[in-house]
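Reopening this one. Same input as before:
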Amino acid sequence: LLLPSSTDIYLTGGKSHESETRLARFMINHLELGDTFVDVGAHYGYFTLLGSKLVGHEGKVFTFEASQTTFDILDKNTCNRTNIKSFNLAVADEVSELTFYEFPNLYSEYNTLDVNQFRSATWFSQYKPREVTIQTIVLDQLLSEHQAYPKMIKIDVEGAELKVINGLSNYLSEHSPLLVMEYLSQERGNEQHQEAAHQLNALGYLSYTIDGNGNLNPIKNINDYLNERKLESDNLVFLKKAKAINRVKDLA
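Same output, byte for byte:
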Protein backbone atom coordinates (compact mmCIF):
# COMPACT_ATOMS: atom_id res chain seq x y z
CA LEU A 1 0.00 0.00 0.00
CA LEU A 2 1.48 3.34 -1.10
CA LEU A 3 0.11 6.33 0.82
CA PRO A 4 0.51 10.07 0.22
CA SER A 5 3.26 11.37 2.49
CA SER A 6 1.04 13.32 4.90
CA THR A 7 -1.35 10.36 5.27
CA ASP A 8 1.58 7.97 5.71
CA ILE A 9 3.07 10.04 8.55
CA TYR A 10 -0.32 10.43 10.24
CA LEU A 11 -1.21 6.73 10.13
CA THR A 12 2.19 5.10 10.64
CA GLY A 13 4.10 7.75 12.58
CA GLY A 14 6.77 7.74 9.91
CA LYS A 15 7.35 7.05 6.23
CA SER A 16 6.62 3.50 5.13
CA HIS A 17 7.65 3.72 1.46
CA GLU A 18 10.59 1.39 0.87
CA SER A 19 12.90 4.12 -0.46
CA GLU A 20 12.23 6.22 2.64
CA THR A 21 12.84 3.39 5.11
CA ARG A 22 16.17 2.70 3.40
CA LEU A 23 17.08 6.38 3.73
CA ALA A 24 16.12 6.36 7.42
CA ARG A 25 18.41 3.36 8.01
CA PHE A 26 21.24 5.12 6.14
CA MET A 27 20.86 8.16 8.39
CA ILE A 28 20.84 5.98 11.49
CA ASN A 29 24.03 4.29 10.29
CA HIS A 30 25.93 7.50 9.55
CA LEU A 31 24.73 10.43 11.67
CA GLU A 32 26.29 10.63 15.13
CA LEU A 33 26.05 12.81 18.22
CA GLY A 34 27.45 16.28 17.55
CA ASP A 35 27.07 16.12 13.75
CA THR A 36 25.33 18.74 11.59
CA PHE A 37 22.52 17.67 9.25
CA VAL A 38 20.89 19.80 6.52
CA ASP A 39 17.41 18.94 5.23
CA VAL A 40 16.52 20.76 2.00
CA GLY A 41 12.85 20.19 1.20
CA ALA A 42 11.81 19.03 4.66
CA HIS A 43 8.03 18.83 4.13
CA TYR A 44 6.52 18.13 7.59
CA GLY A 45 9.89 17.26 9.12
CA TYR A 46 10.10 13.48 9.40
CA PHE A 47 13.77 13.35 8.40
CA THR A 48 14.47 16.64 10.17
CA LEU A 49 13.23 15.15 13.45
CA LEU A 50 15.11 11.90 12.86
CA GLY A 51 18.28 13.88 12.21
CA SER A 52 17.65 15.96 15.34
CA LYS A 53 17.46 12.83 17.49
CA LEU A 54 20.57 11.30 15.93
CA VAL A 55 22.84 14.35 16.28
CA GLY A 56 21.66 15.11 19.82
CA HIS A 57 21.79 18.34 21.79
CA GLU A 58 25.37 19.06 20.76
CA GLY A 59 24.52 18.66 17.07
CA LYS A 60 22.70 20.98 14.69
CA VAL A 61 19.95 20.59 12.08
CA PHE A 62 19.20 23.20 9.42
CA THR A 63 15.88 22.55 7.73
CA PHE A 64 14.31 24.31 4.73
CA GLU A 65 10.75 24.28 3.41
CA ALA A 66 9.61 26.66 0.66
CA SER A 67 5.81 26.33 1.03
CA GLN A 68 4.34 28.61 3.70
CA THR A 69 1.44 26.26 4.49
CA THR A 70 3.74 23.24 4.74
CA PHE A 71 6.30 25.21 6.73
CA ASP A 72 3.66 26.13 9.32
CA ILE A 73 3.20 22.41 10.05
CA LEU A 74 6.97 21.79 9.95
CA ASP A 75 7.46 24.59 12.47
CA LYS A 76 4.84 23.14 14.83
CA ASN A 77 6.52 19.74 14.62
CA THR A 78 10.02 21.04 15.30
CA CYS A 79 9.64 24.15 17.47
CA ASN A 80 10.42 22.29 20.72
CA ARG A 81 13.76 20.95 19.42
CA THR A 82 16.52 23.35 20.41
CA ASN A 83 19.02 21.90 17.92
CA ILE A 84 16.84 22.69 14.86
CA LYS A 85 16.93 25.94 12.87
CA SER A 86 13.99 26.13 10.44
CA PHE A 87 13.82 28.39 7.38
CA ASN A 88 10.72 29.17 5.29
CA LEU A 89 12.87 29.61 2.18
CA ALA A 90 13.61 27.81 -1.06
CA VAL A 91 17.25 26.82 -1.62
CA ALA A 92 18.51 27.83 -5.06
CA ASP A 93 21.54 29.21 -6.93
CA GLU A 94 20.79 32.91 -6.31
CA VAL A 95 19.00 35.11 -3.82
CA SER A 96 15.79 36.10 -5.58
CA GLU A 97 12.10 35.20 -5.90
CA LEU A 98 10.65 32.23 -7.78
CA THR A 99 7.22 31.09 -8.89
CA PHE A 100 6.22 28.05 -6.86
CA TYR A 101 3.24 25.66 -7.06
CA GLU A 102 1.52 24.44 -3.90
CA PHE A 103 -0.82 21.44 -3.93
CA PRO A 104 -3.52 20.78 -1.32
CA ASN A 105 -2.40 18.97 1.84
CA LEU A 106 -3.04 15.46 0.50
CA TYR A 107 -0.41 15.99 -2.23
CA SER A 108 1.73 18.65 -0.57
CA GLU A 109 4.82 16.43 -0.86
CA TYR A 110 4.77 17.32 -4.59
CA ASN A 111 4.98 21.11 -4.14
CA THR A 112 7.35 22.19 -6.90
CA LEU A 113 8.84 24.76 -9.26
CA ASP A 114 8.03 22.47 -12.20
CA VAL A 115 4.38 21.44 -12.21
CA ASN A 116 4.51 19.80 -15.66
CA GLN A 117 5.97 16.56 -14.28
CA PHE A 118 2.61 15.82 -12.59
CA ARG A 119 0.14 16.76 -15.35
CA SER A 120 -0.26 13.14 -16.46
CA ALA A 121 -0.94 11.90 -12.90
CA THR A 122 -4.48 10.63 -12.32
CA TRP A 123 -5.01 12.95 -9.34
CA PHE A 124 -3.74 16.15 -10.96
CA SER A 125 -6.99 17.31 -12.58
CA GLN A 126 -8.78 17.14 -9.22
CA TYR A 127 -6.03 18.66 -7.08
CA LYS A 128 -4.73 21.66 -9.03
CA PRO A 129 -1.91 23.66 -7.41
CA ARG A 130 -1.99 27.34 -6.57
CA GLU A 131 0.75 29.63 -7.79
CA VAL A 132 2.73 31.58 -5.18
CA THR A 133 5.94 33.61 -5.05
CA ILE A 134 8.70 32.38 -2.74
CA GLN A 135 11.99 33.79 -1.51
CA THR A 136 15.21 31.90 -2.23
CA ILE A 137 18.53 31.54 -0.44
CA VAL A 138 21.94 30.18 -1.51
CA LEU A 139 23.16 27.36 0.74
CA ASP A 140 26.83 28.26 0.24
CA GLN A 141 26.17 31.62 1.83
CA LEU A 142 24.01 30.34 4.69
CA LEU A 143 26.50 27.67 5.73
CA SER A 144 29.25 30.26 5.74
CA GLU A 145 27.18 32.72 7.79
CA HIS A 146 26.40 30.07 10.42
CA GLN A 147 29.90 28.51 10.26
CA ALA A 148 28.14 25.19 9.70
CA TYR A 149 29.93 22.10 8.37
CA PRO A 150 27.29 19.44 7.70
CA LYS A 151 28.19 15.78 7.66
CA MET A 152 25.08 15.03 5.60
CA ILE A 153 22.87 17.08 3.27
CA LYS A 154 19.52 15.68 2.11
CA ILE A 155 17.93 17.26 -0.99
CA ASP A 156 14.34 16.52 -2.02
CA VAL A 157 12.91 19.47 -3.95
CA GLU A 158 10.86 17.92 -6.76
CA GLY A 159 12.97 18.97 -9.74
CA ALA A 160 14.94 21.94 -8.36
CA GLU A 161 17.91 19.80 -7.30
CA LEU A 162 20.21 21.38 -9.89
CA LYS A 163 19.60 24.85 -8.46
CA VAL A 164 20.49 23.58 -4.99
CA ILE A 165 23.71 21.92 -6.20
CA ASN A 166 24.75 24.98 -8.20
CA GLY A 167 24.26 27.13 -5.12
CA LEU A 168 26.35 24.71 -3.07
CA SER A 169 29.24 24.16 -5.49
CA ASN A 170 31.74 26.41 -3.70
CA TYR A 171 31.18 24.57 -0.43
CA LEU A 172 31.38 21.16 -2.13
CA SER A 173 34.66 22.04 -3.82
CA GLU A 174 36.25 22.52 -0.38
CA HIS A 175 34.31 20.07 1.80
CA SER A 176 33.02 16.52 1.45
CA PRO A 177 29.58 16.08 3.04
CA LEU A 178 27.49 13.03 2.30
CA LEU A 179 24.80 14.09 -0.18
CA VAL A 180 21.41 12.37 -0.40
CA MET A 181 19.32 13.38 -3.41
CA GLU A 182 15.95 12.20 -4.60
CA TYR A 183 16.40 11.27 -8.26
CA LEU A 184 13.41 11.06 -10.62
CA SER A 185 12.94 8.63 -13.51
CA GLN A 186 13.05 9.73 -17.14
CA GLU A 187 9.26 9.39 -17.30
CA ARG A 188 8.98 12.07 -14.59
CA GLY A 189 11.31 14.37 -16.51
CA ASN A 190 14.72 14.06 -14.86
CA GLU A 191 16.88 16.36 -17.00
CA GLN A 192 17.63 18.57 -14.00
CA HIS A 193 18.55 15.51 -11.91
CA GLN A 194 20.87 14.22 -14.61
CA GLU A 195 22.62 17.59 -14.80
CA ALA A 196 22.85 17.75 -10.99
CA ALA A 197 24.51 14.32 -10.99
CA HIS A 198 26.96 15.49 -13.69
CA GLN A 199 27.81 18.53 -11.58
CA LEU A 200 28.47 16.32 -8.58
CA ASN A 201 30.63 13.98 -10.67
CA ALA A 202 32.69 16.99 -11.76
CA LEU A 203 33.18 17.85 -8.07
CA GLY A 204 34.54 14.36 -7.39
CA TYR A 205 31.37 12.64 -6.21
CA LEU A 206 30.34 9.06 -7.08
CA SER A 207 26.75 7.76 -6.93
CA TYR A 208 25.40 4.95 -4.73
CA THR A 209 22.11 3.23 -4.01
CA ILE A 210 21.00 2.41 -0.46
CA ASP A 211 20.20 -1.22 0.35
CA GLY A 212 17.70 -2.53 2.87
CA ASN A 213 20.22 -2.32 5.70
CA GLY A 214 21.12 1.29 4.99
CA ASN A 215 24.44 0.39 3.35
CA LEU A 216 25.77 1.78 0.06
CA ASN A 217 26.20 0.04 -3.29
CA PRO A 218 27.98 1.79 -6.21
CA ILE A 219 25.93 2.55 -9.31
CA LYS A 220 27.19 3.56 -12.76
CA ASN A 221 24.02 4.35 -14.71
CA ILE A 222 21.20 5.77 -12.60
CA ASN A 223 18.58 5.78 -15.37
CA ASP A 224 19.19 2.09 -16.09
CA TYR A 225 18.89 1.32 -12.38
CA LEU A 226 15.52 3.09 -12.13
CA ASN A 227 14.22 1.57 -15.37
CA GLU A 228 15.23 -1.98 -14.46
CA ARG A 229 13.40 -1.74 -11.13
CA LYS A 230 10.47 0.25 -12.59
CA LEU A 231 10.97 3.02 -10.05
CA GLU A 232 9.55 6.53 -10.48
CA SER A 233 12.20 7.83 -8.09
CA ASP A 234 14.70 6.81 -5.44
CA ASN A 235 16.94 8.37 -2.82
CA LEU A 236 20.54 8.13 -3.97
CA VAL A 237 23.73 8.95 -2.09
CA PHE A 238 26.68 10.86 -3.56
CA LEU A 239 30.03 10.33 -1.87
CA LYS A 240 33.37 11.94 -2.73
CA LYS A 241 35.95 9.58 -4.24
CA ALA A 242 38.49 9.91 -1.42
CA LYS A 243 35.84 9.03 1.16
CA ALA A 244 34.62 6.12 -0.97
CA ILE A 245 38.17 4.70 -1.20
CA ASN A 246 38.66 5.01 2.56
CA ARG A 247 35.34 3.30 3.19
CA VAL A 248 36.38 0.34 1.03
CA LYS A 249 39.66 0.11 3.00
CA ASP A 250 37.72 0.17 6.28
CA LEU A 251 35.59 -2.74 5.11
CA ALA A 252 38.57 -4.77 3.86
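So the earlier flakiness isn't reproducible anymore. For the record, The chain has a mean pLDDT of 87.
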